[in-house]
Amino acid sequence: MTFALTISPSDLLLLLPEILLTFWLCLILIIDFSFPRLRNEQLAYFSIAGLVATLGCLVWFDVADITGALFGNMFVLDGMALFFKIFIVGSTILVVLASIDFIHRFKFFRGEFYFLVVMSALGMMFMASANDLLSVFVALEFSTLGLYVLVSYLRDDMASNEAGVKFFILGIFAAALLAYGISLVYGETGKLVFSDMTSAQATPGLAIGFLLIFAALGFKIGAVPFHSWIPDTYHGSPTPVTAFLSIAPKGAAFAILLRMFFVSLATFKPVWILLLVATSVLSMTYGNIVAIAQKNMKRLLAYSGIAQIGNVLIGLATGTKMGSDAMLFYLLTYLFANLGAFAVVIAVSEAIGSDEIDDYSGLGRRSPFLAFSMLIFLLSLAGVPPLAGFIGKLYIFVAAVKEGLYLLITVGLINVVISMYYYLIVVKKMYVTEPHDRSPLKVSGSMKAVVYVCLAGTLAIGIYPQPVTDWVVSAVMMFSHLADPTASLPVPPAVVPFGG
Amino acid sequence: MVPLSAYVAVSAVLFIIGLLGVMIRRNFIIVLMSVEIMLNAANINLVAFSYYLESMAGQLVALFIIAIAAGEAAIGLAIIIVVFRGKISTNVDEMNLLKW
Asked: Mind listing the pLDDT tens digit for each residue in A389-422?
């Protein structure tokens, strides 16, 4: 057997965003050690410039509809890959911007922080395009290796080290499960590319293999039986890294899950739907109930994140085109609300040096801007109209109704009520409880920029969702054959359940 | 000639040894070694399947897994050295600062 590897310039064009970011990564490192007197924020803005250029390139691809597959289908660039790449690069830009204030807490290697963040983002971009079990494994490890270091970046802080150890042990454990799962799937089918496995026979080996792969990706997204690392890691890591960890890798892992369940395993839907329903119900319920008892803002957001992932899994469990539209839409609303909430946590902890919910008392008087933004983000996470989170939840539930998944909808609605309770506890602390200290908080310009962008996203998607729904519907056109039988055909115009 | 089932059995046994090691042992270094055993179980499977299916892809995957396992070990040891400086211990149970 021989391998013929020919790459033409038009193939390289498909890789342009990744190539651009790789060059930029090298530049960040070179500039960091060539100019030791360079200030941190200059390096941060330099990294952001590269990420913005990459984002521009991705948006150009999306608008001009440049798609294709490379390296024998191992790397695909389709609407969904472009959506997730824009998602990842966008969240990375906001995280880098939010980390500018935080960076003075690192005693050493401040420049390398940006290098590692951008490198992880590059790995996740490859995850969004991975269409083959080998590229899934390599890209997943590529992005996670950088994250292990980032989580334990506060070298003298025992909590950060501990978070690093816990994240590392569960991360490599998940990698081992993934590798063994890949070996079993390969043995049963002889194939590695997702789209070649559609005709696979149901055998015990294949079932165990895919279960192990699902478990490994479950660790990545933090769905309930695999969530144990989430609270401790989120609590201990530097807050910008927590924000990064709570969004970008989840989006990338969902891209792989979508390809796996909707392409390779589409014929086994009656089997995997039970698995996904169980994971989704457990994640929503466990995350929301444990969140009630939290005293620390980062831990509260960690548990609420587990519950939000349960909501996204409802979309995956429907197994329809509309379910995948709703997932993408929901992830986008989650990006703005969750990143915004973490940005407020960073700003508050810069000003008062604490993440405890008790210390948020009186925030409404000390910093009306931060308190109001936090209110908006928490209400969007809870799903209150007219914010983005409401439309996201509605979209997911409508997709589930069409498939008749009433159990999921009931559990989901009960959980909306539970989540409202603990989000409102925080709101009550901010607006009703008397502050211990009345001095106003100072917020830096870069933090304000992040919070404003997230506020704008949350409000704009909530009030006028039409452009975003159009975008997600066209992004997952590849699943249009999975339209649910009850929907009136043709699908695309009928998928928007609400007027814009 | 050794049948394919023998290879799969050996690899399953190795995988379970590694799995139990991760779950039972409390020393970070031994946990790391157990995970390496699990990765090597996957490698045995991949190479055996690759030979019987007469396709090269499995061996390629095995090579990548070996390379990535080395990278993981490097990062894991770096993290545990940082922890060891503060705690003089590599026992995972003693890392109990973060709890709800």
From this structure: 999 999 999 999 988 888 899 999 999 999 999 9
Which of A2, A142, A172 to substitute to test the interface with B, most B CBs within 10 Å? A172
The beta-carbon neighbor of A148 closest among B42, B49, B79 is B79
Residue A163 domain flag: no
Nearest to B49 among A1, A187, A231 (CB): A187
Q: Does A298 touch chain B (CB under 8 A)?
A: no
Where residue A54 falls (left for φ over 0; alpha for ψ -120 to 50; beta otherwise) is alpha
Instruction: Say which amino acid occupies A229.
Output: W
CATH architecture of B4-94: Orthogonal Bundle (1.10)
Whether A319 has a pLDDT exceeding 80, the answer reads yes
Q: Is residue A170 part of a domain?
A: no
Is residue A386 domain-resident? yes
Instruction: Give the tokens for residue A404.
Output: 């008749």
- Containing domain of residue A456, as a range? 284-500
Least confident of A212-216, A244-248, A342-346, A402-406: A402-406
Does any CB of chain A come closer than 8 Å to the CB of residue B86? yes
To the nearest 10°, report the CA torsion of B3, B8, B11, B15: -160
**Option in A134, A158, A299 nearest B61 (CB):** A134
C-alpha of B13 from chain center: 13
